[in-house]
Amino acid sequence: MAQMVEISDVVDPRVDDFRDLSRADRRPDRPGGRGLVIAEGVVVVERLLASPYPVRALFGVRRRVEELAEATAGLDVPAYVADADVMARVVGFHLNRGVLAVADRTSVIDPVELIGRSRRLAVLEGIGDHENLGALFRNAAALGVDGVLLGAGCSDPLYRRSVRVSMGHVLRVPFAHLDSWPADLKLLRDEGFRVAALTPRGDSKRLREAELDEGKVAVLLGSEGPGLTDEAIEAADVAVRIPMAEGVDSLNVATAGAITFHALSGTW
To answer: Contact, 164 vs 132, CB < 8 A?
Structure first.
């Protein structure tokens, strides 16, 4: 397994990658940001180890690091071990899951490449909440979506909270950025995709009537609260809604995504 290294000094520079994550866990283009991929807990760390992201080190209490012995077999990186108090003082908060791993980011996927090898895609606009973003990736992985395209206003899917909420599935579901929004939706049509915009508007088609299980389909999902912009809906091929009980006007975006992703599979 990875070589265990005891850490007893809170200021030991060998664990700087894990230091003060409440402030330092940021995108590389933001103040203080190092832009590392950070996994929390045994299950998510295992998924990071199995992902394309190059792992730099692990850090945890001995019991949790030992649980990863099989997953770290042959891994030539340090596994720093400390007691829970030292770990909390390094990280900046008490970590119930007991183990972290950090990795470098990989090169960004070209959206044309991702679109070209996919049949089912989620396209997101304005998903700024890291937990919603992580939940959407988890749902995409569970329900057979091939990838995620990030449009305007989306948060970083590799932020620690998104990785955690996704249960590490953001590390295996490929994603790409659409830089020209919503003009880049044309890239989908060029590859034969039908773009379905999810909206509660009364003039939209009911989900069961939209035939989303046929052909190549991209589901367009918007932010919590305001939803999709008018420009995004107008750029789609069809507007689709999930019928709801009277008095309820919307669903959490991750929940709405899960229902729609399931409809794409044609198994409902």
So the answer is: no
The structure tokens listed for 101 are 């791993």
Nearest to 158 by CA among 23, 35, 19: 35
In 143-227, where does DSSP find H-type helix? 160-165, 186-190
| Same domain assignment for residues 125 and 247 | yes
- Beta strands 37-40 and 99-103, pairing class: antiparallel
79: domain CATH number is 3.30.1330.30
Sign of torsion over alpha carbons 128, 123, 102, 58: positive
3-state secondary structure of 56: strand
Tell the residue number behind the tokens 């700087």, with chain if given.
16
**CA torsion angle 251 256 259 265 (round to 10):** 170
Cα Rg of the chain, angstroms: 20
Range of the domain at 29: 3-103
102-161 pLDDT, tens digit per residue, is: 999 998 899 999 999 999 999 999 999 999 999 999 999 999 999 999 999 999 999 989
